Amino acid sequence: ILTIEMTPNITEEVFFRNGCTTGKRKRKQMNGLRREKEELEIRHSLLISWIGLLWISIDRMTN
Questions:
Q1: Which is the most buried residue in 30, 35, 41, 46, by most CB within 10 A?
Q2: What is the CA radius of gyration of the chain?
Q3: 3-class SS of residue 13
Q4: Cα 4 to the chain's mean position, in Å?
Q5: pLDDT in tens, the chain (63 residues)
Q6: HSE-up of 10 (CA within 13 Å, CB side)?
Q7: Residue 31 near residue 25 (C-beta atoms within 8 A)
Q8: What is the spatial distance between Cα 52 and Cα 58, in angstroms, rounded to a whole number?
């Protein structure tokens, strides 16, 4: 949690040194990566719950 909160401040400073245009481009890339990570986490949790439901249904069928 700390690293995610700290990184934007560091990257913004770097962007201002390199110039606004590169900063905007890199910020878009970072947002894209963050969005991909969130989607992966959501998919992961959905997969776990789906496997759980499947496991319960199989368990009920066998008993």
A1: 30
A2: 20
A3: helix
A4: 11
A5: 444 454 555 555 555 555 555 555 666 776 777 888 888 888 888 888 888 888 888 888 887
A6: 7
A7: no
A8: 10
